[in-house]
Amino acid sequence: MSTSSDVFEVARAGYVNHRIENSTVIKHIGIILYDGCSLLAAGTLAEALHVANELQTEKAHRSLTYRVKLVSARGGTVSCSSSMSVWTEQLVGLQFDNLDNIFVTGGRDVARASTDDCLIDLLRRVSATSVTITAVGNGQMLLSAAGVRQRDWPSMKQDILPRQSSVAVPPHERDQALMTSLALLKKDLGSDLAARVADRLCSGCDLSSIRAFEEMYDATLAEKARASARWLAQNCAKPISVVDAARMSSMSERNFLRLFKREIGVTPSKYLLRARLDLTCQLLRNSDLPVDKIARRTGLSNGERLSKLFRKEFSMSPTEFRARSRTAD
């Protein structure tokens, strides 16, 4: 027969468990899918967060629980790149406020998806809220199409190194998704738990080390810088600025400047000026356009500014350059 003290202890235990459960933070995660998206990337993200939930139950109490939703612009069935169909919820209206993070996966049909007005409009509306939005892999193309900026990819340091060190690196899509999820876990729950999740997920994958991830990320950043340089060169005749280039790369201006200088060797503004001067030289050689008109066609405002820049860079006037280049020919 239960005594009053037994009843008290049971009630006390129930109260404590209730307090612990109620003290748990719930973090709602949305993964946006579309026809042709990578189910592997979405699955890796969801699995990493599920493992984090499991590992926390081994403690005296859970501090944070992730709840993942698969969402899309229209809802219903989405055909992924693995020839599998997945049911999604439609992400509309006030549902934005119920999510803490949204991830946009890449996939083989990301270019086609970037022309989907419904999906692009959804991304724009999400970006107008306080929700943190992050692209995985070439899902960045969708954010660029929507004019959405995201945080720079967090650096994955050695403190979340998988404790195994074996051979091959798994497929690129999974790498990107795993890196993204580990960065989130490191920020939310610390390096130790992120490392434990990495161990669990890597145990069958034979990941070599986090250095392979770092190298892959560095290569991605290098390509982003080169793509920005190409964009500046292709659009130098237009009234563009470094801020526009940073926005196209979905980076803050400060981080974009640092990345560009590191990878290209000059600042974006210097690179843009060189591209404009190169175009100016071509027009001086191959046309009879007045200097003032050439200045306007190459984004250099007017002939006076062009002449000053020309003398500074080449120690001669545009007219002298034109005469010398034609004499040489």
Which characteristics define this entry?
329 residues, Rossmann fold, Arc Repressor Mutant, subunit A, 2 domains, 6-stranded mixed sheet, 14 helices, 11% strand, disordered N terminus
Task: Give an overview in words.
The protein has 329 residues and is of the alpha/beta class. 56% of the residues lie in helices and 11% in strands. The protein has helices at 4-23, 39-57, 110-113, 117-127, 140-146, 172-189, 191-202, 210-234, 242-248, 253-264, 268-286, 291-297, 303-314, 318-328; strands at 25-32, 64-72, 76-79, 85-90, 101-104, 132-135. Strands 3-4-2-1-5-6 form a six-stranded mixed sheet, sandwiched between helices. It is elongated, with a radius of gyration of 27 Å.
SSE ordering: HEHEEEEHHEHHHHHHHHHH
Terminal-residue CA separation: 110 Å
Question: DSSP helix count?
Answer: 14
Structural domains: how many = 2
Describe the protein's topology.
Elements lengths: L3 H20 L1 E8 L6 H19 L6 E9 L3 E4 L5 E6 L10 E4 L5 H4 L3 H11 L4 E4 L4 H7 L25 H18 L1 H12 L7 H25 L7 H7 L4 H12 L3 H19 L4 H7 L5 H12 L3 H11 L1
Parallel strand pairs: 1-2, 1-5, 2-4, 5-6
Antiparallel strand pairs: 3-4
Helix pairs in contact: 2-6, 2-7, 4-5, 6-7, 8-10, 12-13
